[in-house]
Amino acid sequence: MRGVLRFAPLLLLLGVTAAEAQEPLKLPDIDLIRVRKAARIMELWSADRLVHVIEHIQLGDEPVGPKRFEGDERTPEGRYVIDWANPNSAYHLSLHISYPNAADRAFAAGQGRSPGGMIMIHGQPNAWPAGRVPGDWTDGCIAVSDEEIEALWEAVPDGTPIEIEP
After folding, report:
1. Cα distance from N-terminal residue to C-terminal residue, the chain
2. Sheet strands (E) in 70-125
C-alpha cells in the first residue's frame, strides 16, 4: 500500500484513482488446468475447486481438431502434464506441455510423419509492443496475456495435469 500512496499524486495527474489501480493476478497453487478450445477459456483448479478462468486464450492458426503432425498449426487435445518451464522463452515466459504422448507419436509414425512438439503455454512475443497479438496466431501453443503467464508461472508446478478439450 505504501508504494501506491507514494505514487498517488502521479496517478491523480494521469486520471487514475487508487481504486482503479489493479493488483497483479495472484493464484493459489494450481493442481489442474483444463482448456476448452472452442470456448477459448482456460480453467484453473486448486483442491478440486475452480479458482480462476482465463478468457480469450489464443491457439494455433488452425484451432479446430487435435494436433496430429508437425507444422499443422493445431493445438493438441487430450491429457498431458506441464513438465518444465522456460524463463528464456521467445515469449513472455513459457510452460511446456508434454505433447506428444505415446499415442500421438504412434499415430504420426503410422502416417510416416512427425507429431511435432514444443507445445507451450506462453505469453505474448517478447518483441510485441503492448497488449496481445490479435486472433489465433501460435504454431499450436496456447497464448495468454503476459500478466496471466506471470501468475501461472508462480502457481503451476511441474507435473500439473492439463486437459485440453475440443
Report:
1. 43
2. 78-86, 94-97, 120-122
- Local structure of residue 39 (DSSP, 8 states): T
List of domains in the chain: 26-165 (2.40.440.10)
Q: How far is CA 149 from CA 16, 24, 77, 85, 121, in A?
A: 25, 11, 20, 11, 8
**pLDDT tens, 32-85?**
999 999 999 999 999 999 999 999 999 999 999 999 999 999 999 999 999 999
Cα–Cα distance, 60 to 136 (Å, whole number):
6
pTM, to two decimals:
0.85
Q: Which residue has the cell 500500500?
A: 1
